[in-house]
Amino acid sequence: MTGWLQEFPTLDEASLRILKKAFDSGYRSFSRSYGDAIEGFFDPLLYFLVWFERFLLSTPWWAVILVVAGVCYVAGRSRKLSIFVAVSLFLIGYLGMWEDTMRTLAIIFVSTLIAIAIGIPVGIWMSRSDRVQSLITPVLDIMQTMPIFVYLIPVVMLFGLGKIPGLIAVVIYAVPPVIRLTNLGIRLVDKEVLEAADAFGTDTWRRLFDIQMPLALPNIMAGVNQTIMMALSMVVIASMIGVKGLGQPVLQAVTNQYFALGLFNGAAVVALAIVFDRITQSYGRRIQSSRQTS
Amino acid sequence: MTTASASNIEIHSLYKIFGDDPPSVMPLVRDGVDKQELLESHGHVLGLRDINLTVKPGGIQVVMGLSGCGKSTLVRHVNRLIDPTEGTVLVDGQDVLGLDQAALQHLRRHKVSMVFQRFALFPHRTILENVRYGLQMQGVARAECDTRAERWIERVGLSGYEASYPHQLSGGMQQRVGLARALATEAEILLMDEAFSALDPLIRTDMQTLLLELQRELNRTILFVTHDLEEAITLGDRIAILRDGEVVQNGDSQEIVLKPSDDYISNFTKNINRGRVIRVGSIMEPTQPRPQGQAGKDYSIPSEMLLEDALPRVVASPHDNAAVVDVKGKTVGAISVGRMVHALSGDRLTGAA
Ligand SMILES: Nc1ncnc2c1ncn2[C@@H]1O[C@H](COP(=O)(O)OP(=O)(O)OP(=O)(O)O)[C@@H](O)[C@H]1O
Ligand SMILES: [Mg+2]
What we know:
The complex is a heterodimer. By secondary structure, chain A is mostly helical. In chain A, 85% of the residues lie in helices and 0% in strands. Chain A has 14 helices and no strands. Chain B is α/β, with parallel strands linked by helices. Chain B contains 15 helices and 13 strands. In chain B, strands 6-7-8-3-9-10 form a six-stranded mixed β-sheet, sandwiched between helices. Chain B has a four-stranded antiparallel β-sheet with strand order 2-1-4-5, with helices on both faces. Chain B has a three-stranded mixed β-sheet with strand order 11-12-13. In chain B, a hairpin with a 5-residue loop joins strand 12 (321-325) and strand 13. The chains are: A mainly alpha, B alpha/beta. The complex binds adenosine-5'-triphosphate and magnesium ion.
């Protein structure tokens, strides 16, 4: 009689199938009719990524090491750190992973740029209105808790395998921290300093760019740092949908049980992570120390 | 409101209520509901009630009162950092509340500038960049900004610190920067919200001296907020005392100390060193000196003299009284030791001596 008390009331199988089918076919027809247009939209990005990858690969290895160590020195003003970076890059090359590392470097660099380009404006928008904040925050929560593979599916359905779907997946996964910390950083700017800016007749734009953004910068940098780390952690998963780089050998190592291969490439990812982390963090610290509030 | 000279700041029937629906409680506030009751039974905070204040050009008007009485709220109406619930605020005869965004910015850039209790310097900018900020907002060319800012930095005694950041300076030095930043715009009106309250007593005295020195030269119109009576007396040409959002007395230091309008004010003045506040002219008998006292040089004292200095002089004179003379040396009244002691003891002077 009261069957639903003993057994969970499920939708019968037939309707469930229809529901899923409707969903799938709906999305499929969407991707069929708009897929090309959307792909075309992302083409410039693809060109840029391919160009940057080729550029890194065709530049002599020592020049790349010099430039990265140089950037590192400019950002952090630490000689020790720059030497560490140069040595780890050299070791990576010496162990035969130079090309894959350059590919990974390229996709991380480009996806971080995109994440910043999207994340900072969204963060600013969020910081300006409590309503926008309360709308976007749950979306960010979902983006960060949804299993990655789930949003790989629609992306792959739309774009097939390749660099662009990989890039999009990485950006979706990695963008929340920049957004959150841009929003937080701007909201944390001292109210009295803002009042002073208003009292001197500052208009909205200058208030944003001359006062709020510079003062939020240490927090924004912390967000960028996290974003890069998350992008790096996506390398292996992105390789499953055809992104070349350090992830592919790892994947190969897992399926074939090549322990050393997995370990070396994993270590290269870690080394890249440390390089990025130290560069962004020491830059963040440096701006913080000259811009301390009293 | 007197006619003649246009006053720089005029505030008429100003009301400010904080809460969800201020207009709904306005009738109650007008009927005189007290602050406590308004908060407890109606959920609104009384900020200001029926403020009428006229600040003449070139003077220092002090606004004084206990914490939470509405001092900050009041000054922030002048440059409209706060919008009133009701009332009028005129700056140079111009209705501040009628200004659109652009006009308001113009007012804040050119006419009214401000110094803050906790300095509120821009932490990411150097001292020079802080001081020239207002000039940049005015659209002054960079080179001129720098020379003018430089001059103000020198004027407040901070030459050599142009390239430092605020956090590298002590509190007193930071407030000098705050003062230079506000003065640099050449705004006619200067709002100072407890500008010296965060400083150590000695530094504070230095800053008061600096302000008075600058003011002698610049003649700005200053609205100065403080909760400290000594500071109010040192700086204020006029002192308005606020309680629970209302002005309870507005007068010069002599009136506040000698004729406190109620107990709230006598409480403020209770612990003051009266000898260092009250001037002979305020308590003298405006008559001719008694016949036996020749109005000789030894026995006359200037009416501007403080009781602290005058009392030993009169006591040392052969008679227990002296003639009081004005700046031109003309006799304007007489003062007796008894009268001085009476004033120092804090009893209210009634008409007869
Ligand atoms: N934004 C606000 N919202 C609600 N209430 C406020 C707000 N700003 C001020 N108040 C209230 O208005 C009253 C006056 O505040 P105000 O800051 O002007 O006092 P004050 O005299 O400057 O005090 P203090 O000496 O502590 O600076 C206080 O009761 C305060 O709680
Ligand atoms: Mg205050």
